[in-house]
């Protein structure tokens, strides 16, 4: 049954649904959600990464979209599918979570938020609503919430215990909803009704490419630095191959203290660095007769190495009495 | 793809389900549990369309628990199976039918072990052995050939084309987790 209020699925331009509105070109396998988003859990918390290209049936509607939306201080959601739907439902979820927090005095867990979102989307199953989100959060209970007093703290802890006991007499086993586990958690929620708890998810048309990189490198014991570089690499590889992903990469890191956002990085630079690395042997070092101005190319260890070599040549030639030596490095694309 | 199997013995029911949660060609989870515990001695195994399985199974699960809270005693497996069937049938001709295939397995103090097969058209049958999925085509013929009602707990055999299975056994003591079957354990 459709919902009672006025949120009927109205016609809207499906940003992010490539080709499915034209019906003329058959897709090899169901490839919707023109994006690449990924999230995984490791010892340092949860890491979420996404590209920033918003595509609309073959054209780039926005090269600087935001696909990772913070929901509250300790919960972040990646979005995939129709951009408008995702943005709306994230806001609705944020509102409901805030109401829950005000009514019950504690934050709802990530699993609870995932269930809430899944149940809110359920009436729209079978319509064109398309939301595929991963909710990445840190469930901490009240320990790190400064506004809770000790009295409230112990009262709610007792409430937890009571809930656990009452639920365990009725049901136990694999779905113990009453127990609050603190720590990182990751849920995948889709508008077709799927709700999965896991440690690694990638969603979108670029997800197969991202999965291959992530399956190789992601382990529990990664440092934050390593995890960030794997996530960036995975998004980069997906944007390299997938037409509907690209532009920049956003990275969010969620710990017990909340989420932090890393600077948005343009993957164009990464692409050029990759090209330089590949064409490394064809790199030529030209020593020119200028006023000692060195042309410094951005990034790339190989370039730095060749520059060092260049400088050595320069100093050597100065020693030998040759004046005005310039170092210039070029790469072939 | 998704696979469920149940076998009833003289004083137990053995059930197994595969562990894959897939989304078209990508396997999103490979340790996904498809069994829902309705009560201490009843398990519901559920496969089918993506959201429908969890929605429907959790709905049944919560209602069975509610019955226990209201009345102080649990529904028997037969009653739970018929309740499930009624709900599935009611939704069948509505605008939101649930496309799920189920196996309900339970142990009753009075009636002993019971295995109920239910499909998405809400057909219910109590059977000594049952299976859902493509694997069913293969295993049902084996079970037809080799099943004996007095089978003891040692001799089960499964056909595998899926990486791993959750196996559980229900008897008068309740639900027991057996060892998770993977390809390696058969080599």
Describe the structure using short key phrases:
A: alpha+beta; five-stranded antiparallel β-sheet; 7 helices; elongated; B: about 190 residues; alpha+beta; Glutamine Phosphoribosylpyrophosphate, subunit 1, domain 1; globular; Ntn_hydrolases_N (chain B)
CATH class of chain B: Alpha Beta
Averaging pLDDT over every residue of chain A, what do you get? Answer: 73
Described by the principal axes of the CA atoms, the overall outline of chain A is elongated
What is the mean pLDDT of chain B?
A: 83
| Poorly predicted spans of chain A | 1-6, 8-31, 143-177, 281-302
In the CATH hierarchy, what is the architecture of chain B at level 2?
A: 4-Layer Sandwich
Quaternary organization: heterodimer
Describe the protein's topology.
The complex is a heterodimer of chains A (333) and B (187).
Chain A: E1 37-42, E2 45-51, E3 54-56, E4 59-62, E5 68-72, E6 75-78, H1 83-104, H2 110-121, E7 132-139, H3 150-170, E8 183-190, E9 195-198, E10 200-203, H4 207-217, H5 224-241, E11 248-255, E12 258-261, E13 265-266, H6 267-278, E14 284-288, H7 301-319, E15 326-330
Antiparallel strand pairs in A: 1-2, 1-10, 2-11, 3-4, 5-6, 6-7, 7-8, 8-9, 11-12, 11-13, 14-15
Helix pairs in contact in A: 4-5
Chain B: E1 4-8, E2 13-18, E3 21-23, E4 26-29, E5 35-39, E6 42-48, H1 50-71, H2 77-92, E7 100-108, E8 112-118, E9 124-126, E10 129-132, H3 134-146, E11 164-171, E12 174-177, E13 181-182
Antiparallel strand pairs in B: 1-2, 1-10, 2-11, 3-4, 5-6, 6-7, 7-8, 8-9, 11-12, 11-13
Keywords (chain B): Cytoplasm, Nucleus, Proteasome
Family (chain B): Belongs to the peptidase T1B family.
Main location (chain B): cytoplasm
């Amino acid at each position: 049954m459709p919902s009672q209020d006025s949120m009927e699925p109205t016609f809207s331009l499906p940003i992010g649904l490539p080709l499915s509105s034209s019906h003329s070109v058959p897709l090899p396998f169901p490839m919707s959600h023109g994006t690449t988003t990924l999230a995984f859990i490791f010892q340092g918390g949860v890491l979420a990464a996404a590209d920033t290209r918003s595509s609309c049936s073959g054209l780039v509607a926005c090269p600087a979209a935001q696909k990772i939306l913070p929901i509250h201080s300790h919960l972040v959601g990646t979005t995939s599918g129709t951009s408008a739907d995702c943005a709306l439902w994230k806001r609705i979820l944020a509102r409901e979570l805030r109401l829950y927090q005000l009514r019950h005095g504690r934050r709802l867990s990530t699993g609870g938020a995932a269930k809430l979102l899944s149940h809110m989307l359920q009436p729209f199953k079978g319509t064109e609503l398309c939301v595929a989100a991963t909710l990445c959060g840190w469930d901490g209970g009240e320990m790190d919430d400064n506004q809770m007093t000790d009295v409230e703290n112990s009262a709610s802890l007792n409430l937890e215990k009571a809930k656990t006991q009452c639920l365990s007499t009725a049901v136990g086993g694999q779905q113990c909803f009453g127990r609050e586990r603190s720590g990182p958690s990751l849920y995948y929620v889709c508008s077709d009704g799927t709700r999965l708890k896991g440690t690694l998810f990638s969603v979108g048309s670029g997800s197969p490419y991202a999965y291959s990189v992530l399956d190789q490198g992601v382990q529990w014991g990664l440092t934050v630095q390593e995890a960030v570089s794997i996530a960036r690499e995975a998004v980069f590889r997906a944007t390299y191959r997938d037409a509907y992903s690209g532009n920049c990469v956003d990275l969010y890191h969620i710990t017990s203290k909340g989420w932090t956002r890393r600077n948005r990085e343009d993957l164009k630079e990464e692409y050029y660095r990759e090209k330089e690395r590949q064409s490394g042997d064809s790199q030529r070092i030209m020593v020119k007769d200028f006023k000692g101005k060195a042309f410094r190319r951005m990034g790339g260890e190989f370039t730095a190495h060749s520059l060092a070599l260049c400088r050595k040549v320069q100093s050597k030639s100065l020693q030998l009495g040759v004046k005005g030596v310039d170092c210039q490095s070029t790469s072939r694309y | 793809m998704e696979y469920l199997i149940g076998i009833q013995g003289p004083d137990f029911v053995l059930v197994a389900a595969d562990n894959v949660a897939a989304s078209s060609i990508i396997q999103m989870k490979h340790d996904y549990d498809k069994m829902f515990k309705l009560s201490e001695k009843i398990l519901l195994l559920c496969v089918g369309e993506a959201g429908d399985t969890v929605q429907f199974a959790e709905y049944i699960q919560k209602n069975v628990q509610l019955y226990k809270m209201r009345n102080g005693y649990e529904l028997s497996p037969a009653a739970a199976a018929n309740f499930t069937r009624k709900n599935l049938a009611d939704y069948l001709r509505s605008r939101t039918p649930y496309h799920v295939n189920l196996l309900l397995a339970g142990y009753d103090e009075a009636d002993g072990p019971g295995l109920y097969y239910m499909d998405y058209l809400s057909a219910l049958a109590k059977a000594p052995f049952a299976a859902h999925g493509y694997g069913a085509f293969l295993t049902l013929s084996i079970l037809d050939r080799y099943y004996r009602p007095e089978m003891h707990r040692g001799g089960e055999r499964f056909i595998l084309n899926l990486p791993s299975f959750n196996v559980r056994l229900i008897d008068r003591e309740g639900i027991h987790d057996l060892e998770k079957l993977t390809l390696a354990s058969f080599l």
